[in-house]
Amino acid sequence: MAEFLGRARICKEDLTCPVCMDLFSEPVTLSCGHTFCQRCADGHWSSRDPGTQCTCPTCRAAFPSKPSLSRNVVLASMVCQLQTEEDARVAEGTWCCEICRHEASHRCIRCEMLLCQVHSDAHRKKKGHCLVDRTVDLNTLCCSEHGKPFELYCRWDDSLVCMVCKVAGDHEHHQLYTVEKAYMKFKNVLAREEGHLSDMQLSISTCIEELRNASNVMQNAMKQQKDGIEGKQKELHSLVDDVAAHLDRQLSDRFRFMLHQFEQQIWDLQQQMVALQESEAILKVAMQQDDTVTFLHGYKNLQDRLKSVIWVQDTLQSMAAQTETPESLDLEALIDNVKGTYFRKFYGCTPMLEVNSAHPRLLLSEDFLTATVTDLPKPYPSHADRFESHIQVLGSVGFSTGCHYWEVDLSSAERCSVGAAYASTPRKCYGPSSMLGRNPVSWCVRKAGTAISAMQDWKETVLGMAEPLQFLGLCLDYEAGTLSCYRAETMTLLHTFRTTFTKPVFPALWICWTNDSLSICPLG
Questions:
Q1: Residue 264: domain span
Q2: H helix runs in 11-59, sequence order
Q3: Tens of pLDDT along 448-473?
């Protein structure tokens, strides 16, 4: 019996109906030798066209009349025993190979046999048999409509279908692949996608690394800037402390000198008091003198003493004027002085002049800080940046960010303009629009003798000056869009140009008369 069951297990695939692909249910055998479920055979013949003969679903053998079907008892018994054994195995929860009874590792989708690793390798070679892990629910691998295993893949619907779906279902005329072909096709697609994903991961990893590096650079830059700010803060505190100490010393020295004067005057007055008391005593003695000769003999000396009383009164009036409260220190002037120190220390620069932009009549010094107007043109080479219409020159470096402060000595120029300009300032045009302050791309303070004015795009603002302008300080704040002009000696604000800078800004000079000169003051 055990041998019989072993053979039955080996032939389990032969106990499957070729129509429904399930184990036989009421198996019947035709005269041609093929066996089917009784309901499958009846269903097959009932669906034939009227007037046609009954045929075998497998070999298409024709029968003159509908065959009389008899139950195949042997096959039915084998199916019953197999089903009983499978039910017992499921109840016991065991997974045994249906051939050798060793532990099963796989299950065949087509014949549902449990197989060990050894028999799985042999069974896998059978055409149309696909093995899966023993724990896989076969219901998920079969068509829910027909209960048949998935053997085809519909490309139109991107779905798995069974053979019945192909013949009689909704996929009859669809493009179908065998599951093996679809498997290889889509596996190759995924292999390409895997390479693409690997490339994307590599790109993302590279981008992450670059971002981390950029983040580190940014953090280092931020730390450096913070350190720089802390350094500037310390310098500012030191500057303020120095100014406060200087003011304290100046105030102390001033009041110490005045207190010394007061003490000296008090001592002098005390000496005068002693002299007055002595004169008063002598006067009283003289008034009591009855002898005329003796009185007159001492009168002259007494008169000389009394004259000193008038001098003491004049001294008292002078001292009374000096005891008034002294004038307060000029804090505004001191603040302006601090402002100048601040600008020179933190923003001060010494822009050099660009020889290629200098007008032929401008002679530049060896350090490129002084421009002097000459009688005859200099043999400068022709250059696109050179001013030809007006005696002007720009700085060699333009400012496109930050705050910058520079000073210009105007003491050797009677008529001149000092300011800033874009590189696009007209250079070859001989009209007035190429002069500093007479176009929208330049800003300047113009000096004409004692008259001072601010000019930009022909708009002139007259600046009242109590004293001749000797040194001009210019503070450019690019982001704020301001160019502030100061009397550099006192840091008195003269004028502030306001705009939005969009290009690099260059220091600019214009000089009118021969032998006049302008000089950039060295700072820092």
A1: 230-329
A2: 38-46
A3: 988 999 999 999 999 977 688 999 99
